[in-house]
Amino acid sequence: MKKMIVVMMLLLVCGLIIFGKQYAAKENGGNEKGPKQADQPQSQTQTQSRNQSGPKQKVLTLDKGDIYTGELLLVNTTHPVPKKLKVSHVINLFDHQDLMKGFGIMDKSVELPEEMLTRFNALVAAAKADGVTHFLINSGYRDNKKQAELYEQLGSEQANPPGYSEHNLGLSMDIGSTLGAMKSSPEGEWLKENAWKYGFVMRYPEDKTNITGIMYEPWHFRYVGLPHSAVMHKYGFVLEEYLAYLKEQSSIHAEVDGLMYTISYYPIKSKLELTVPSNGSYTIAGDNMDGVIVTTWEDDSSRKEVAG
Ligand SMILES: [Zn+2]
């Protein structure tokens, strides 16, 4: 009888242990995150748990200087161009017509950073394939001296004072058409539909003048890069709205051309330690306000790493 009780006690203890283990396993299973959907806002913790199973990571240390550099800088009447901004490899297009692939320039003064010229050439090539071939650049990069001259010439109604124009960033272009006004020309129509596919956005749309503070300019395009231009296009956001949205959501996902992007906003008070993929598939862009937007993506090679 005594033996029976001991055996039964043992069985009961074993049963409790097994039950406990199963329960714990279930708990862990319940905490695992399912596959992400494109464009669905996700919390920061979910992003981190995704990264742990993703490609190899490295740690970067960012500081406040990182707020003021990159392709998402917000420049408007209340956010001036960062003082220490460096725009590199600016070239005069008239002097480098060999580098221009199938478009015209308004005059000898048009300048662009070389990288922007490459991006615009890609856009022009895509438009050409659609039979749209009459692009004319009216203005590209402007330094403060050029902007001051323009401001004096056109006045505050039509030009921003030096230090408050996106053209000072080297990321904006005034694109025209030799066939007429951009509002109705084939070039204007094409850009409205397709510019986002090449990283460009119409910066001052007709229905957002109350947000941008700038009149409708169907010719002024700003480079923000992919996947940002795709998300902005999808939701109809101007840059002010997009940056506010990222800040509010902390982190979102977007799928563009088969790549899965995670776009996260981080405030920077003094220093920020950040984990990014060590294979270089990330970008960091300051918002010119109080933080940075970190974009990571998974390409084919990182997928193999996950599988292995
Ligand atoms: Zn412009």
UniProtKB/TrEMBL annotation:
<feature type="compositionally biased region" description="Low complexity">
    <location>
        <begin position="37"/>
        <end position="53"/>
    </location>
</feature>
<dbReference type="InterPro" id="IPR003709">
    <property type="entry name" value="VanY-like_core_dom"/>
</dbReference>
<protein>
    <submittedName>
        <fullName>D-alanyl-D-alanine carboxypeptidase family protein</fullName>
    </submittedName>
</protein>
<dbReference type="InterPro" id="IPR009045">
    <property type="entry name" value="Zn_M74/Hedgehog-like"/>
</dbReference>
<keyword id="KW-0121">Carboxypeptidase</keyword>
<keyword id="KW-0378">Hydrolase</keyword>
<dbReference type="GO" id="GO:0006508">
    <property type="term" value="P:proteolysis"/>
</dbReference>
<keyword id="KW-0645">Protease</keyword>
<feature type="domain" description="D-alanyl-D-alanine carboxypeptidase-like core">
    <location>
        <begin position="112"/>
        <end position="225"/>
    </location>
</feature>
<feature type="region of interest" description="Disordered">
    <location>
        <begin position="28"/>
        <end position="57"/>
    </location>
</feature>
<dbReference type="Pfam" id="PF02557">
    <property type="entry name" value="VanY"/>
</dbReference>
<dbReference type="InterPro" id="IPR052179">
    <property type="entry name" value="DD-CPase-like"/>
</dbReference>
<dbReference type="InterPro" id="IPR058193">
    <property type="entry name" value="VanY/YodJ_core_dom"/>
</dbReference>
<dbReference type="GO" id="GO:0004180">
    <property type="term" value="F:carboxypeptidase activity"/>
</dbReference>
